[in-house]
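2,3,4,5-tetrahydropyridine-2,6-dicarboxylate N-succinyltransferase: structure tokens wanted.
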Amino acid sequence: MSGNAFCLGLGVGTKSSKGEWLEVFYAQPVYEPCNNLIKALTETLGYEGGNQAIELDQEKLAAVEAAFIERNAEDQAAIAATLKGSEQPLVLCILADDDAPSSTPETYLKLQMISHRIVEPHSINLSGMFGLLPNVAWTNQGAIALDELPQRQLEARARGELIDVHSVDKFPKMANYVVPTGTRIAATSRVRLGAYIGEGTTIMHEGFVNFNAGTKGTSMVEGRISAGVVVGKGSDLGGGCSTMGTLSGGNDVVISVGEGCLLGANAGLGIPLGDRCTVEAGLYVTGGSKVVVLDDQNNAVETVKASQLAGKSDLLFRRNSVNGRIEVKTNKSAIELNHELHANN
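Answer:
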């Protein structure tokens, strides 16, 4: 195998009684590990290239630790040492390239790469991931296969214990795998694994962040960041506001919020925003919304679809309280904006 691999992770996880992976925790994924380390693992485990999730017993774990030590990968060697004697399933996941994941361990490694801020949303291939993520009962006793939950609950009750089911979902909460530095998350259950939470972001109790989505820097999130939506640094999402993700009606349009923007309380967004834009509280702007463009004297210049304003900066979207129409103002002149809209017609 030539060149560096894409990523590797030494993980510990949970399997069902049928031997199927439910989840995998990677303490410290390694992005683009050096070729010498991959070569050492090849010699140790018989790795033959490609994307593989190699299950490890204690003997193989010791060999992997020795390979890490030999190649001066001290952090990974320390992880291997911690896992000695573990009764949980162990796996070494090696991704030679960014092909679509083909196993549950590969999918978990890629989601954790995003949450560790190793890669940004939309920058890696997650095609087909839903079929590789089992629907799991996430409990105070860890991940439990759904078909095993009733018996586990009965056995727990017989011991005078309670299995508390926090959620039933394909995705666990991010904080059980990654807590990014410099962040505040008031309700960790509302941030799914695979979210990208930028340095300086605060997510309040009603804030929500889905996978392959998140914030790039300092932001206050009191609304919903749907799957695939990325929010630029310095932008705030007011209480109850919503962004339309690719799974909730955005289809193939990738919704994003630029830098220094504000989505007011209970507002909604169905187009990409440029920088320094504001959407008034309570206003939902979709791609098909008819928007009246105003000049600096508040005179109507033209009516356009909101989709024609996608990605443009310095816009204020508001609802006219008298006639109910959606209006947009800009700190540029509306005439300049009008020329810009039609420049490529």
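The chain has three domains: 7-132, 138-169, 174-342. The two ends are 50 Å apart (CA to CA).

Cheers.
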